[in-house]
Structure prediction request, 273 residues.
Amino acid sequence: MKSTRIKDSYTISEVSRLFGIGIDSLRYYERLGIITPARAANGYRIYSLSDMYKLASIKELRSLGLGMEAIGAYLDHQSLDSTERLIDDELNLIAAQIENLHARRDALTERQQRLDTAREALVGEMMQVAMPVRRCVRLSGRLERDEEMDLFISRLHRRYDEQLPLLGTMTVGAFFDREALAAGRADVFDSVFFVVEDASIPCDFELPAGTYLAYRYRGSYAQDADALRNLAEYRGVPGLCEDVAPFEIYEIDNRDTAREEEFLTRVELRLPK
Prediction:
């Protein structure tokens, strides 16, 4: 069998093929001073076996997620101590990533369970439900179109982006504008909100504990007015419940489906003690 001879030096094209590293990246490493290949008489870069060892280390460290500055510092001061510190740092990073993945899995599992429950939920029936305190964050503004609602929901999520879970896993709601209700309109809202279940996240208002009257419907939001009239009739008052502060929770919406007929909305108001 013919043996493969190990060369003492390699061109930049050969190095690129051997390591699967782009030529532009190799030149970038050189600009950073991490790799300093020699130059042949014709000006071409020549990589030594020592350079090849460094490139192998760089590729491995990059696969661990280290930035080039950290890699350069490590290679300049490589020792047993620095290698053990590097391993410790990577183990801590992996542990944090595993924890984050577990949290995402739990959030998605919860979302799946909510959707399964929402699929089977009864609609068109009046319910009185005892609710605990619900901690919330809110963004206020007059909203008359679905596009404005979606924009405000996204804006509110970005405000707490580092603290809140995935938007698709949040309980999202909106308060009806009571002046518009008094004028007979149920398509105007004055704020959107998220129910925040993580006690470590600051909230800016609470839905108080108490007995809530609720009514679910499936399909178009054009049914809001009928839902509010049903709630008002049940309470024995006229109008669209403008005397209280009704709101709705989006149990299934355009985060979950593009089919309007699959939407599930719960309109709520707190009953007086």
About this structure: The mean pLDDT is 90. DSSP finds eight helices and eleven strands in the chain.
